[in-house]
Specification:
This protein folds into two domains: about 5-20 and about 105-225, HAD superfamily/HAD-like (Rossmann fold); about 20-100, Putative phosphatase, domain 2 (DNA polymerase, domain 1, Orthogonal Bundle), CATH 1.10.150.240. Helix content is about 50%, strand content about 10%. The protein is built from nine helices and six strands. Strands 3-2-1-4-5-6 form a six-stranded parallel sheet, sandwiched between helices. Helix 1 packs across helix 4 (about 85-100), helix 2 packs antiparallel against helix 3 (about 65-80) and helix 3 (about 65-80) packs across helix 4. This is Noncanonical pyrimidine nucleotidase, YjjG family. GO terms for molecular function: 5'-nucleotidase activity.
Amino acid sequence: MKKTIKHVFFDLDHTLWDFDRNSGLTFKKIFEVHRLDINLNEFLEVYKPINLKYWKLYREERVSKPDLRYGRLKEAFDYLEFKVDDETINKLSVDYIGHLTTFKHLFDGTKDILEYLRQKYELHIITNGFEEAQERKMTNSEIKHYFKTITNSEMVGVKKPNPKIFKFALELAKADPKESIMIGDSLEADIEGAHKVGMSGILFNNGEMQNLFDDITTISHLEELKNYL
């Protein structure tokens, strides 16, 4: 793998940028701002799978960006039987995006592995996240300068695992798929999506995955990438 790879593509959220940790801190802040007396841990336990469900629907073009931002909050509050009016939910959804990017926790070893890899490969990002938020996340966490190109789904009009976003990213990077590898936390969006266009893939199990896959190269710490790249 080391001999053939020239371009390394990363997912951002849940792979480099510690989404769950930063998201939890964001909710703590906006609940305090809006004076919502709700148990944060109970909310996060309910919200997390709902958010993942909405992102899957978003990838499949079954909900819009506004529907995702509103629906995930509305459904979580309803499940907990915590009454919040629509106006407040809409304000929370805006404040959430605004404050989320101010937190900058990365997964352990992120900067070290990027520093290691950039000496040998060209590095790139492919993300389904919202353009304005992803740019700020990378800038505030001081990793944007590591990447030659950044491709997000809003630029292309489709989301991973749609082959179009991978082809767009490869063209932007002037990269041959046979010389490229995708690293991300989603088997469906990142790894299977990359395989469809002829790229290799490494699945990052950030602790969320119960099942591992014998035919998929999997790491549980970013430092392990040195074994393959």
